[in-house]
Amino acid sequence: xxxxxxxREPRGVPKMRSQDPSRVRASLWTVRTSKGRxxxxxxxFSGVVIATRAxxxxxxxxxxxxxxxxxxxxxxxxxxxxxxxxxxxRTAVNCAADLDLGLNFRLVLDLRRYVGRKIQSPxxxxxxxxxxxxxxxxxxxxxxxxxxxxxxxxVAWMTCPRRRRWKSCSRSHREAEELIEKAEAEWNVTKxxxxxDARQALRLARAARDAEDALLAEQRVKPLKRSR
Length: 228
Prior knowledge:
alpha+beta; single chain; CHAD domain-containing protein; about 50% helix; 6-stranded antiparallel β-sheet
């Protein structure tokens, strides 16, 4: 399987922070399979990746993209902030239940503090499922045991049964643990390098200030010597 962003379309999932409805934009994604190419519209709303059903027709996918953009724009106009609660969007989704968008949802979990990356949940079928999962994860992030709880959630996401589609399938528990251990090790190396670089930059800045101070002191001393 190869995921190919459609030409002249935004790469990846856009991060939309403006509350201006006219700036709400979805991206068009293409998946190449042995049976041909399939297209779907995707956007991110308040930390949730929202995707339409996949279709072999690019024209149909573009139509679905316009409709899902309109859905998000209506939610923004109703007062739902792009990075705030999802209740306004849930109302818009429920109103659009008969529009045949085939919507599915993935919650984005920010683990940059622990492994330097964001991850996505398995596909969720409704916005209610997203809200329940988000509430549970917000509780899990409280206290000193946040990372162990989120780590277990990540393992569960990777090992949960899923329909084999687009050559995507669940991992074994061992594979999931190995992937997380690798991510942790790589992040520790990255953090150590950033710390070394920061310390080196601080030393260079101090050396530059010391040299500048020494030069200014020397310039002040020279006129005094000549006056004597």
